[in-house]
Design a protein that fits this description.
- The chain is of the alpha/beta class.
- It has 8 helices and 7 strands; from the N terminus they run βαβαβαβαβαβααβα.
- Strand 2, helix 2 and strand 3 form a beta-alpha-beta unit.
- Helix 3 packs parallel to helix 4, helix 4 runs parallel beside helix 5 and helix 6 packs across helix 8.
- The protein is globular and about 60 Å long.
- The structure holds NADP nicotinamide-adenine-dinucleotide phosphate (NAP).
- NADP nicotinamide-adenine-dinucleotide phosphate binds next to helix 1.
Length: about 260
């Protein structure tokens, strides 16, 4: 029987790669989007043209009632999910000594509260006849193992979500497995320039850019490996073992300024 996965923030970048990986492995994909519904629809059309199954679903994950509506829509039109991939994220620069409370709350809501709430809603709708445990996968960040104070609110949200992996695994067993995937720098983000990204993306033990396809493949691997539970896999070319005093995009810029 076809297995169903929901990928949040599935229209672009890592989310789109995760949707493609699951579809190619025979899963029925729910591709969630907030603002990028046309891109999500185009991705679903492409998956269907290749013989896969995919549907879009829209929701602002910052709002509890939107999350509930989305999960009810999925349950009504598709049935219970076998996997939830919490990929959507808000990534805004701020600092511990200078942050906007509303911006902090928004990042906590999208990056932490939404994944936990969607997990709870998924569990409520689980089928009683699943042959194997369902899975929940949280997209984290190598930053949780390699702290620096930049992107303060974002980092706090991902740290709390990383700690939730074990708590949820304990609480939701034996019906659900919960794992994390902690990527390193994959895509140009925020104020970063292409030149900065080209340099920063090689700041890891392997000194080469991290392939986001491998991060997406790790999500599928976790979903399909019934023995993995309560762990977070860093998929970052070893970036978490290269400590920096600032976020890598700022560290590279600081180095450039010093040598200018
Ligand atoms: N980018 C990197 O290099 C990097 C590095 C380490 C970890 N990560 C983690 O890997 C994951 C994917 O990264 P990414 O860069 O591909 O993500 P991204 O492009 O920054 O964001 C993915 C999607 O999140 C959705 N989103 C944001 N706010 C939302 C809201 N209020 N409601 C619903 N959806 C919302 C957006 O969907 P719409 O476009 O539909 O609005 C967006 O396309 C994230 O969890 C990120 O923290 C990324």
């Amino acid at each position: 029987m076809l297995k169903r996965v929901l990928v949040t923030g599935g229209a672009h970048r890592l989310g789109a790669l995760i949707c493609q990986q699951f579809a190619q492995a025979g899963w029925q994909v729910w591709c969630h989007a907030q603002r990028s519904v046309p891109a999500a629809q185009a991705l679903c059309d492409q998956i269907i043209a290749q013989g896969g199954q995919a549907r879009t679903v829209q929701a602002d994950l910052a709002l509890a009632e939107e999350r509930e509506r989305m999960m009810a829509e999925i349950a009504a039109h598709g049935g219970p999910l076998e996997c939830l991939v919490n990929n959507a994220s808000s990534f805004e620069p701020d600092e511990a000594n200078d942050f906007d409370v509303r911006a902090l709350r928004l990042q906590l809501e999208v990056n932490l509260v939404a994944p936990l709430h969607l997990s709870r809603l998924m569990v409520q709708n689980l089928s009683a006849h699943m042959p194997q445990a369902a899975s929940i996968i949280h997209l984290l960040d190598q930053k949780v193992f390699n702290l620096n104070p930049d992107y303060f609110s974002y980092t706090v949200s991902k740290l709390a979500l990383e700690r939730s992996v074990a708590l949820q695994a304990q609480a939701l067993a034996p019906r659900v497995r919960v794992c994390g995937v902690a990527p390193g720098l994959m895509f140009l983000s925020g104020p970063q320039t292409q030149a900065n990204f080209d340099q920063a993306s090689r700041v890891n033990l392997l000194q080469r850019a991290i392939d986001p396809v491998q991060v997406a493949a790790t999500c599928l691997f976790i979903a399909q490996n019934p023995a993995l539970n309560g762990v977070t896999l860093p998929v970052d070319n070893g970036q978490h073992l290269v400590p920096l005093s600032r976020d890598v995009m700022f560290a590279v810029q600081d180095l450039k300024d010093t040598h200018a």
